[in-house]
Design goal:
The model has no long low-confidence stretch (mean pLDDT 92). The chain has a single domain, classed as Rossmann fold (3-Layer(aba) Sandwich), CATH 3.40.50. The chain is of the alpha/beta class. Helices cover 41% and strands 14% of the residues. The chain has a 7-stranded parallel β-sheet, sandwiched between helices. 45% of the residues are buried.
């Protein structure tokens, strides 16, 4: 399919080949988009660069989303190379490991600030710099969330609060940008075994429970999230903005795990 033929996309947040953002990047590429990447530090750069090059990417830049000057530099480089930007994928989230276990009320002040700055304000800061390159055409910004933004997920703690703020930030940005041609949407993906997810206690249990409880009786894949991102970045979602699209095998609709057969949890 050439749904995104001629489009230029910047993906922020790929860490390795298990990243949801990598699944998104692959599907954008398959749909015809030219994809650029940023990476957070040289350690991740060694993983991201080969992936980006496998898609023919020629824009692979280091970016610390907590550094305004670094963001200014990346967007200046993008403008010099491409002039415009059609798609921005925000897949950035971080919380201190100690704040992802135990009681939420034990969250440290610094840990709370870190989670909010990296996971939420980064979307606002990136959007601010992207707007001049995206305004006046049909363009899209997509961020990634999780059901812990809506309901309490054990050990998700401060990240759940940050994701709730992220989803609302996306709505406010969608309102700000509604008349510019820029649409802002969120994908709430089911749990995927990523580098970031490995910091959450009992991620294996969460993946197991998701597959047992979701109506489709399985976990979410990178590819499924990526294809949904293509939809949100294409003309087929032209009337959609400020939306949270759940790509979680229907997990979010279940009120109780009815229908699990005896022994199915083994």
């Amino acid at each position: 399919m050439d749904l995104l033929k001629g489009k230029k996309a910047l993906v922020v947040g790929v860490a390795n080949d298990r990243s949801i953002a990598w699944g998104v990047a692959q599907e954008l590429h398959k749909a015809g988009a030219e994809v650029g990447f940023t990476y957070a530090g040289e350690v991740l750069g060694k993983r991201v660069r080969p992936l980006a090059e496998s898609l023919g990417s020629t824009f692979i830049e280091e970016l610390n989303v907590n550094d305004d000057e670094a963001m200014d530099k990346v967007f200046k480089l993008w403008e010099e190379k491409y002039k415009t930007l059609d798609i921005l994928i925000h897949a950035v989230a971080y919380a201190e490991k100690d704040d992802l276990k135990g009681a939420f009320y034990d969250t440290s002040r610094d840990g709370f600030k870190t989670a909010m700055e990296v996971s939420v304000f980064s979307l606002v800061a990136l959007t601010k710099r992207a707007v001049p390159l995206m305004t006046g055409r049909e363009t899209s910004i997509v961020t990634l969330s999780y059901y812990g933004a809506e309901k309490v997920i054990k050990n998700y703690n401060v990240m759940g609060v940050a994701k709730a703020a992220l989803e609302n930030a996306a709505r406010y940005l969608a309102s700000d940008l509604g008349t510019t041609g820029i649409r802002v949407n969120t994908i709430s993906a089911g749990p995927v075994k990523t580098l970031a997810a490995s910091g959450i206690s009992d991620i294996r249990g969460k993946l197991r429970d998701h597959a047992l409880i979701s109506p489709m009786r399985r976990n979410t894949t990178q590819e499924e999230v990526g294809k949904s991102a293509v939809y949100l970045c294409s003309e087929f979602s032209a009337g959609v903005t400020g939306e949270v699209l759940h790509v979680d095998s229907g997990y979010h609709i279940v009120g109780s795990p009815d229908g699990i057969k005896e022994g199915e949890e083994e």
